[in-house]
Amino acid sequence: MPVGWRDMVYGAYERRVARELPRESMPRHVAVMLDGNRRWARARGEGTATGHQAGADKIEDLLTWCERAGVEYVTLWLLSTDNLTRDPEELTPLLQIIDNAVCDLADARRWRLTLVGAPDLLPGDTARSLRASVERTTDVDGMTVNIAVAYGGRREIADAVRAMLRARAAQGQSLEQIAADLTVEDIAEHLYTKGQPDPDLVIRTSGEQRLGGFLLWQSARSEFYFCEAYWPDFRHVDFLRALRAYAGRHRRFGA
Fold it and tell me: Exposed end of the chain (fewer CB within 10 Å): N or C?
């Protein structure tokens, strides 16, 4: 099929999927695992930095699509705690790409950014720069975008429990009192995403069908959508399909 005809057919299909979406069934919070950058680059005979940059360049498109769909919160997993053990030849340029991408998102003045993870594990310059970018958006009245960098789900839960214990101890409570009164809500109040609704929809690209430690606590009642496309190849129609799949499910909220 000629390229022009293929684009026309694709455009018509994309518009049809968009029209069919029930607006009353859209998710408030979408979390995305931006997976497949390295494999995308390898398939093209490119270096890993090229793949990571292509993935970073796709982020603004995703956020625009989420805005159009009425999403209020987006969580982007850009770097896990496990990723910090990668070869410095890959990790150093990756950190710079992430830093530049977050800076660009802040400069856009469209979204309110929050930092999710353990930035103290990052190089000092990177952590300071990310915090500065986030700080510049505190007055932005737009969609909330969580930037998950140096993020690990198990670490988040451990950090939440640690913070809760310290807060209770500061109030003079004994360990026995804390244990006797402890609730799920007590821990949730100290998660990185405290004050936000849990994700309704978690999307993972690249064909992998596992969480890998992403939002372990918050995703207990989430719906999951796994897409075969590598993240740099993720298209608007792929996002619309994820929304369509979500809207068509009967949510059991973990049951």
Answer: C
Q: For the chain, which residues make up each domain, given as ranges?
A: 27-247
Q: Pick 188 or 9 by higher pLDDT.
A: 188
pTM over 0.70: yes
Q: Which of 57, 61, 83, 186 is catalytic?
A: 83
pLDDT at 93 over 70: yes
Q: Where are the beta strands (DSSP E) in the chain?
A: 29-33, 73-80, 111-117, 143-151, 201-204, 223-226
Res 9 pLDDT > 90: no
CATH superfamily of 27-247: Decaprenyl diphosphate synthase-like (3.40.1180.10)
Catalytic residue among 35, 99, 198, 200: 35
- Residue 146 is among the residues annotated as catalytic for this protein: no
Q: In what order do the strands lie in the sheet with 111-117?
A: 111-117, 143-151, 73-80, 29-33, 201-204, 223-226
Which residue stretches of 109-222 are H helix?
124-135, 153-170, 175-181, 184-188
Read off the pLDDT band of 218 (50, 70, 90): very high
Tokens of 124: 């000092």
Residue 240 φ/ψ, nearest 5 degrees: -65, -40
- The tens digit of pLDDT for each residue in 163-189 reads 999 999 999 999 999 999 999 999 999
Active site annotation includes 83: yes
User: Is 157 within 8 Å of 219 (Cβ atoms)?
Assistant: no
Look up residue 55 and give its two tokens. Answer: 């993935």
